[in-house]
UniProtKB/TrEMBL annotation:
Protein family according to the UniProt entry: Belongs to the complex I 24 kDa subunit family.
Annotated gene: nuoE
The species this protein was found in: Tenuifilum thalassicum
Binding, [2Fe-2S] cluster: C86, C91, C127, C131
Needed co-factor(s): [2Fe-2S] cluster
InterPro entries assigned to the protein according to its UniProt record, in alphabetical order: NADP_DH_HndA-like, NuoE-like, NuoE_dom, NuoE_N, Thioredoxin-like_sf
Main enzyme class: oxidoreductase
Name of the molecule in the record: NADH-quinone oxidoreductase subunit NuoE
Keyword annotations: 2Fe-2S, Iron, Iron-sulfur, Metal-binding, Oxidoreductase
Lineage of source species: Bacteria, Pseudomonadati, Bacteroidota, Bacteroidia, Bacteroidales
Pfam families in the record: 2Fe-2S_thioredx
E.C. no: 1.6.5.11
Annotated SUPFAM superfamilies: Thioredoxin-like
Amino acid sequence: MSHIKLELKPEQVAKIKEICKSFNNDPGELINVLHKTQETFGYLPAEVQEVVAAELNVSVAKVYGVVTFYSFFTMIPKGKHPISICTGTACYVRGAEKVLDEFKRILNVKVGETTPDGKFSLNCLRCVGACGLAPVVLIGEKVYGRVSPDGVKDIIKEYEEQ
């Protein structure tokens, strides 16, 4: 995957610095700073991580480590309709992988990618706590339970017109 260098605008850099400052540029607040920054920008590309690292006086590697460790942080822009498939144990044994494969096939994206039109992004989650409804798919905040590979087409259709 080639990395396109993102050019941050001065006002974006200023906004990141302002967020860092709101947490007193405290390295111990890194996770909170990243949450607030992702809330503002929608995702955390390397260029944003570099500014955060500089402001909190921590290494870029440390920031990257936190961003990649926690599944709620993302380095790619989320689609308008972010799709998350639960791959926790209950969902997995009830066929979540086949459901995931079907989403990948129909949308023609890999996990962690967004469709070229920006409509859908695809991700996996560990457990959403709805094990009785396994396999579970989340689209934005909406929960779909007992999803079968055959049902994937209809779920996508629901959002295509939006």
